[in-house]
Fold this sequence. Notes:
The complex is a heterodimer of chains A (111) and B (150). Helix content of chain A is 40%, strand content 29%.
Amino acid sequence: MSFSLKKDKRGVVVVGVDGQLIVGNRQELKQKVLDALEGGGAKFVIDFTKTGYIDSSGLGVLVSLSKKIREQGGDLRLCGLNEDLQTLFELTKLDTLFAIAKTPEEALAAF
Amino acid sequence: MTTPQRLAVRRHATGSETELSLDVPSDLAYVGPAVELVAGALPGGLLSARRIRFNFRTAFAEALANAIAYGNRHDRARMVRVRVEVSPEAVRLHVTDEGSGFDPGDVPDPTRPDRLEREDGRGLFVLRSLVDQVVFNEKGNSVCLTLRAG
């Protein structure tokens, strides 16, 4: 499991989640995104195309990051959720809290 | 993890039933490895690959993290006992901590508008959404998650 960060040419930070986002690694994701926020990043996309599963701690860290990014005047979008993950967001009603795109390209185009 | 401990799954088979068991130290760093270890040891054919990949893994991670954090309070002297009964009808996952238990009826609905932006409090809700049955013992320190075959 790992996280990759890259910036597109307009400065949008795209974070890839490879494997799972769970209680054991959520702090690593949180720190990476907060560091990028501190470094001047304002627009973020978290890409779950390569993600197998997310537990409630992982969902919680996304909620917390979204709040922090919005407080700094930025924006967080999610993309690449498979059918199961999309259902998880719908059941928890977190689909109402996040802007969710199908693909990274779609998420980037929405900024 | 200061002193990583090697996790090992014990397997016991009787007729058409298989039982897997595992003791997990109360450190959240063990959750991911324990989930992968048990998911990889499940006999094939009973649950679809998709349900093992998502429902089983997520529910197990959730129950294990709850047991470590809220049950055993991260006390590394305490263990979480995991037992998986695999029969032709279902997979039953028992997760037991050494804590004093809790009342699952006391957990508020995390989808309420006033709780939606909270970071925590979704664990039990997610568990119940992912498996066919969630049963706690009376004390509240042991949960049995059932995923029926399919």
